[in-house]
């Protein structure tokens, strides 16, 4: 549609005004629907504004031309006005379209794909409804029938939506609340619930944010929320202190339009010769309890590398933190240690940011020089961390992990 | 590929799982008797048969719940207690085929005596024959062979039937290492009250040299009653085989010299498995003999009984029964002699076939005897006809030496294991350019082109068709199951049972084809009759295989599981009578 390039909801934008050359146009030169609504100017948002804008149009005298552009613009404006999830708003839009004019008469006219742009317009309305998860109802269908006739594409689409969307409404096992809280502890909880699918998983807040609400940019104490299930605890206990575990991150997690970053405590998979023994071959006197099946290689074998077939090691715990630096994550590990004492003797390797592995050195270890195109950040050596209990060590290096919005660590952190 | 490497197996059953036709062991019908052996056998058959007809009184044995002394003495004189012991040790040194023929006779007349003899030599001192050191053999075999001492096989415990890990009998090695102290008890030991020599399986602590940890492993011992501390309980009251003595055996502080370990310390599991596997072939021969006797009784009754103005053998209902009995007997007999001949010819891979023959034989014998009672009507039910005793005796054959259900799992799982495929076929039409042997076969089968197998060279032209189809379907199903379940097929017992049933049916088909072909080729007088039996059997088996395997009723399995769960939860039948109470 021709309205793609127009900015959203721009009441003062200069429109090409292709079809609104009627005398009722105000001297501002903008078409009717692009003028600011006649309500309170400050109240630019909300269904009321939308209604007011449409009402203004209804009352505008003259031929109803440029209706398709109108609908397109209105659709584009809806998210900004906050009515994108309001079915009534879509009904009002539909009521603007003429009834009966665009209904093809007879099978031959239907055969010729009548009123393509008009039907596209109807489809656009329905697509936007689908995008925002608005389920049409009988009234929507009735309106569409009146406008486009019974065998038209918008009506068929509406029928499909009426069939599928109610079924898919509850398909999300972890639905998000209609309006997300601002990025913080609450969204971290939601995010962890989504990833840590196990209903047994315990979500623990290891550190509350200070200040309590609001954005954690520059906060002194970022929040740390972690999730671990009893199965993971068992796996970690069995992983043993001899082999290292890795803290990896940040990985992005999108909750609607909020981006969170989560970190993962992972181990490497066991080499084949160390894996769990099959059941004792001398257990059953009469039949084998375990089959040793050979893999055969033949020309039908698929030698391509498939990323789904990569064997990953076990994931022991998850965490979402306000800041993604080693210090904060170190606090997370310290918190995990309460439930997993084996972490005290297991070497923890932090692989943050761009995946550069850096072993946790002794407290106060010197930072490695880093070549960057940009002027290098001053590497500030903080005083060494006090030695952690149980031999657990985090590097006192102040290089940030690169989480979004993570502030460069202040000295002494 | 593994099956072309070290574990290449000639066994027909293993080949079945791979979709191959391993004809070495089955075609032509093997005959492993030299002239001399045949002569010896013929000389033995007469006296043994006469003995069982004249001296042995099965009804009396059953009533007394033990063998009469005259019978015992007579058997010892015949040498029946050491049939397979080498002649230099005092036995008859019979081959497996000769042994099967004699067991056939025993089975025909008295199964209780058969069990006494079988528990003595087929499992009781088999360990000595298979694993004994020359010193042990010299010490024990002569007296065992003449029957002076009787042997028993002691494996089962109250808590341990098939599960070796739950064996509680322990043999503690002495600090000096010269003897073990045995403590524990075994139940349901045949010949437990009579035996002097016991093959006992007990757990011994074993120090693993590599890791230094001590594990408890099973060790096999030869225990003499004279070591002291061996007691037995009263004879158990059984449903059948009452002539055979079954008792609990208790070992309290028995001192077993270290020289009496059979095999190596800690190697008892293998000893147990091999003894059990080796003893199974004789059972099918015994069952074949039993069925021969029972069929004779049924025919005798059917030909003499007149109802509605006609002998009842002219009525279709009876004819069907008699025919089915004949079929089952023919198949069992063919299996029994084929397997024993295979063993004599030196085959190493016959365990699956032996298990198949045990399953088939025991169930066939039960069916045949049941039908015989049916044919005989009320007479069959009365004790004086003797058939009900045989039915009672036969019931235990489906239970001991590995219950038939467990052996079905063995057949299926061993087949998958030894003929294992792995997750071979991911994309069936992959690279059709490279074709060689195995690949050709599998790809062709997957593409529905038929496996190119042919029985042409082996089977008389009249007899081939249905077997090949069954083989194909079986291999296809085995493939599909492995692809679907992989190693977890071990847990799918509903499915494994059906696979085993089909394997049994197919092996039975091939066995009768082989025997009937040979008869036709040698133009034996019974050739046409055998051909009739063979055709009928193959038709019915073919239908059964197709009905079982296509499709596998997984929904029915789920339902059965659910019903079982409900029944277990309510401790029995779930609801009251239709009356509501």
TrEMBL record, chain A:
InterPro entries linked: ECIST_C (IPR029342), ECSIT (IPR010418), ECSIT_N (IPR046448)
GO cellular component: mitochondrion; nucleus
Transmembrane segments: none
Pfam families per record: ECSIT_C, ECSIT_N
Start and end residues of each ECSIT C-terminal domain: 229-353
GO biological process: cell surface receptor protein serine/threonine kinase signaling pathway; innate immune response
Keyword Transit peptide: yes
Biased composition (Low complexity): 12-30
Highest taxon listed in the record's lineage: Eukaryota
Keyword presence, Cytoplasm: yes
Region of interest (Disordered), residue spans: 1-45, 354-413
Composition bias type Pro residues, residue spans: 375-385
Main location: cytoplasm
Family indicated by similarity: Belongs to the ECSIT family.
Name used for this protein in its record: Evolutionarily conserved signaling intermediate in Toll pathway, mitochondrial
Automatic annotation (TrEMBL), chain B:
Residues in Acyl-CoA dehydrogenase/oxidase N-terminal domain copies: 42-148
Domain Acyl-CoA oxidase/dehydrogenase middle residues, every copy: 152-254
Family that this chain belongs to: Belongs to the acyl-CoA dehydrogenase family.
Its biological purpose: Very long-chain specific acyl-CoA dehydrogenase is one of the acyl-CoA dehydrogenases that catalyze the first step of mitochondrial fatty acid beta-oxidation, an aerobic process breaking down fatty acids into acetyl-CoA and allowing the production of energy from fats.
Gene Ontology cellular component annotations, sorted alphabetically: mitochondrial inner membrane
Catalytic activity entry: eicosanoyl-CoA + oxidized [electron-transfer flavoprotein] + H(+) = (2E)-eicosenoyl-CoA + reduced [electron-transfer flavoprotein]; tetradecanoyl-CoA + oxidized [electron-transfer flavoprotein] + H(+) = (2E)-tetradecenoyl-CoA + reduced [electron-transfer flavoprotein]; a very-long-chain 2,3-saturated fatty acyl-CoA + oxidized [electron-transfer flavoprotein] + H(+) = a very-long-chain (2E)-enoyl-CoA + reduced [electron-transfer flavoprotein]; oxidized [electron-transfer flavoprotein] + hexadecanoyl-CoA + H(+) = (2E)-hexadecenoyl-CoA + reduced [electron-transfer flavoprotein]
Name of the protein this chain belongs to: Very long-chain specific acyl-CoA dehydrogenase, mitochondrial
Alphabetical list of InterPro entries matching this protein: ACAD9/ACADV-like_C, Acyl-CoA_DH_CS, Acyl-CoA_Oxase/DH_mid-dom, Acyl-CoA_Oxase/DH_mid-dom_sf, AcylCo_DH-like_C, AcylCo_DH/oxidase_C, AcylCoA_DH/ox_N, AcylCoA_DH/ox_N_sf
ACAD9/ACADV-like C-terminal domain residues: 467-573
Single GO MF annotation: fatty-acyl-CoA binding
CDD domains the UniProt entry points to: VLCAD
Intracellular or extracellular location(s): Mitochondrion inner membrane
Quaternary structure, from the entry: Homodimer. Homodimerizes after import into the mitochondrion.
Top-level EC class: oxidoreductase
Pathway annotation: Lipid metabolism; mitochondrial fatty acid beta-oxidation
SUPFAM superfamilies from the UniProt entry: Acyl-CoA dehydrogenase C-terminal domain-like (SSF47203), Acyl-CoA dehydrogenase NM domain-like (SSF56645)
Membrane topology qualifier: Peripheral membrane protein
Cross-referenced Pfam families: ACAD9-ACADV_C (PF21343), Acyl-CoA_dh_1 (PF00441), Acyl-CoA_dh_M (PF02770), Acyl-CoA_dh_N (PF02771)
Domain Acyl-CoA dehydrogenase/oxidase C-terminal: 266-412
Superkingdom of this protein's organism: Eukaryota
Keyword set, alphabetical order: Acetylation, FAD, Fatty acid metabolism, Flavoprotein, Lipid metabolism, Membrane, Mitochondrion, Mitochondrion inner membrane, Oxidoreductase, Phosphoprotein, S-nitrosylation, Transit peptide
Entry EC no(s): 1.3.8.9
UniProt cofactor(s): FAD
